[in-house]
Amino acid sequence: MEAVPRMPMIWLDLKEAGEFAFNAAVKKSAVSVPRDFEGCSTLRKYLGQLHFLQSRIPMGAEQDAAVPVTWTEIFSGKAVTHEDIKYEQACVLYNLGALHSMLGAMDKRVSEECAAGAFTYLRDHFPHSYSVDMSHQILSLNINLMLGQAQECLLEKSMLDNRKSFLVARISAQVVDYYKEACRALENSETASLLGKIQKDWKKLVQMKIYYFAAVAHLHMGKQAEEQQKFGERVIYFQSALDKLNEAIKLAKGQPETVQEALRFTMDVIGGKYNSAKKDNDFIYHEAVPALDTLQSVKGAPLVKALPVNPTDPAVTGPDIFAKLVPMAAHEASSLYSEEKAKLLRDVMAKIEAKNEVLDQFMDSMQLDPETVDNLDMYNHIPPVLMEKCAALSVRPDTVRNLVQSMQVLSGVFTDVEASLKEIRDLLEEDEAQERKLQELLGRVPPAPGSPPGLAEVSKECSKYLELHEKASFTNTELHRAMNLHLGNLRLLGGPLEQVRAALPTPTLTEDNKQVLQNLKRILAKVQEMRDQRMSLEQQLREMIQKDDITTSLVTTDRSEMKKLFEEQLRKYDQLKVYLEQNLAAQENVLKALTDANVKYAAVRKGLAEVEHKWNTTVQTLVASYEAYEDLMKKSQEGKDFYTDLEGKAAKLLERARAACQASQAQRQQLLERELKKQPPPRPTAPKPPLQKKLPELEPVGPEASELGSLALPDLPEELRSLPPELLPGPLAQLPPPALAALA
User: Are the beta carbons of 80 and 131 closer than 8 angstroms?
Assistant: First the structure.
């Protein structure tokens, strides 16, 4: 059947245009189109511009700007005039369908879908009273004819492509169904009267095609039975195909030679198939041949349809040449549509904001940051702030040594100052002690005159220096403590980076802990993905609403159709709304999973928090040690300057203290001598036993102090006690007067 000659197809004549007060050039190009697809394109553009025009200017029936429109009726050849621009549109639309039917009937057998679509749009959207050729009955007939012929084209292609027998049978059965509908319309008396003499020719051709394509359907059902090895069914299907083909041959009398040729070819195929099948079954398979009515009927497969016509599609009509003419009603309708869009956005945003509020509160209570939930990567590297300090110390290798040396110098000066002040204090205390001993020795002697003026000043200055030294000593101690605290850290920062990294705490996680972390991070990623998707969908919705301008469509739409248009236009948001609803609905499950994961994470989180605190503390301590270096050096230098100055002052004060103490000692010596001279000589007494008596101990004061600090001598005889010292024998003559007085 692949090489079967083609059956002829019915095609429609184009209507001829008459009077219409429109631009002559436009009118000519629109009604005198070439018989090709360029002509179809021209008709579509003209139809669209007429639609744009009538939506702006009142050119309809009984409207102010209506003008006469004349076209010739196909069947009678009479001119029909209406003062209605929609009549012009209807006739152009009819010609569009007729031109497609003409192109479809050519050798290339292009699809007839557009022809059926044009007639369907004409039947459903325009009055049927304009002319006979555009009545409801004629248009319905045209639609079924065009659909049947389109299905016939598809059947030819299916057989050429060697599609499965059952599918080819169903496609052929649907051709029969379409032609039966057309035949019923042709048999209608009203339709027959409208068509005139052409009705009989069309009816005869359609009836012949019904039987012919029924035969083709049963032929392929028989081929399917053969494939399934149902040899009895094969015989009955081939027999039925032969019977129907014979009926088609009877109805084909008077048809063109192409029809006769197609019938003969098909008879050869079906006849051969039937004879072979019957012979094989009679002599080989011996299967019972069922009655045809006991077999399942072949159900048609409608694989073609009337494609809708959209006269305002810019891809078809081109740019709207009347775009700047926007009626006030269209502006008002656009405002109403904007409010519908705003209402839609408010409803969606209310749901989004409610879910976002719950999500934000939940995440705040969890205190989970997806970026730092474990911070494990942080422990693999030395932080930049610490690397910066290490780099700075690497170019200053003498940092620690300079600090130690500075503190050593400070300690040396501090020790010298402390020694000097101690010596001054010892001298003053010694002088006070000598002064007390002198008073005890003199007994009845009046109090000695006051200390030399220089000694009091020394004592005052010494007290001042001691106070300064005591305060500075505390500062010096704190400085040494700070130095000892930071020296170890500075040595660490100046050493190898491996040691610095080793000094920083790191967490230790078990495999279970790692699994808990991975699960938590996965769910947190889901939360973020949900957030991002929600924001993206919201942004898409806002942008879509912002760009949604249907003013052009509103201009070309009747007021009665506005509500329907709004509903159709708002349906474009349905898919986005579905995605958003799915996103919002998923939140509950995601948060439940996050709650469970967080419970398992609690113990791990505590351990990680402790390690992180230690890590941060260590880093801060090391950074603080680096930053304290300059301050330590500065305070160390200030301490050295202070103690150097104090050392000089203490040295001078020590010299003054020594001189003042010597003067004070000399003064006491003179006073003692004067007091001894004033006392009367003692009376002689009986000799006493030779007892050893120890001289009172006078500590030497000054450089010329006697070396006889303590001397044990026998008691002098009474008669020697009144002798002057120079008359005393032996070593007694060398004793100073105070020592002699102490012997008395």
Answer: yes
What is the rounded distance in angstroms from the CA atom of residue 91 to the CA atom of residue 134? 8
CATH of domain 1-134: 1.25.40.280
In angstroms, rounded to a whole number, what is the distance separating the alpha carbons of residues 495 and 501?
Answer: 11
Asked whether the predicted pLDDT for residue 713 surpasses 60, the reply is: no
Q: 689 vs 309, which has greater pLDDT?
A: 309
CA atoms of 61 and 68, how far apart (whole Å): 10
**Global pTM?**
0.51
* List of residues 6+ apart from 731 with CB closer than 8 A: none
Range picked from 236-240, 413-417, 457-461, 559-563 for highest mean pLDDT: 236-240
Residue 580 contacts residue 534 (beta carbons within 8 Å): yes
CA dist 450 and 735 (Å) reads 27
Looking at residue 114, what is its pLDDT?
65
Query: Starting from the edge strand earliest in sequence, which strands make up the sheet with 17-20, in order?
Result: 17-20, 69-72, 79-82
Which residue's entry shows tokens 């042709």? 186
* Residue 713 host element (H or E): strand 712-714
Q: H helices of 32-84, where?
A: 37-54
Q: Which residues pair with 79 in a beta bridge?
A: 72
Q: Same fold for the domain at 1-134 and the one at 164-306?
A: yes
Beta bridge partners of 692: 714
Q: What integer pLDDT is reported at residue 709 of this predicted model?
A: 36
Find the distance separating the first CA and the last CA of the chain, reported in whole Å.
170
Long-range residue pairs from 518-525, CB within 8 A, at least 24 positions apart, any chain: 519/597, 519/600, 520/368, 520/373, 520/594, 520/597, 520/598, 520/600, 520/601, 521/370, 521/373, 521/374, 523/590, 523/593, 523/594, 523/597, 524/368, 524/370, 524/373, 524/594, 525/370
Q: DSSP letters along 233-269, please? A: HHHHHHHHHHHHHHHHHHHTTT--HHHHHHHHHHHHH
Q: Where are the alpha helices (DSSP H) in 281-383?
A: 314-317, 328-366
3-state secondary structure string across 504-544: CCCCCCCHHHHHHHHHHHHHHHHHHHHHHHHHHHHHHHHHH
R_g of the chain, CA atoms, integer Å: 64
Which tokens is 314 given?
Answer: 């810019």
Q: Which residues contact 406 (CB under 8 A, 6 or more apart)?
A: 633, 636, 637, 640
Pick the CATH number of 164-306 from 1.10.260.40, 3.40.50.2300, 1.25.40.280, 2.60.40.10: 1.25.40.280
CB count, 10 Å around CB of 152?
24
Q: How far is CA 114 from the centre of its chain?
A: 48
Per-domain boundaries in the chain: 1-134, 164-306
Which helix (H) or strand (E) segment holds residue 70: the answer is strand 69-72
SS3 state of residue 587? helix
H helices present in 367-446, as ranges? 384-394, 399-442
Could you tell me if 271 and 79 are in contact, meaning their C-beta atoms sit under 8 angstroms apart? no
Whether residue 281 contacts residue 235, with contact meaning beta carbons closer than 8 Å, is answered with yes
pLDDT for position 271: 95
Predicted confidence at residue 425, as pLDDT, reads: 81
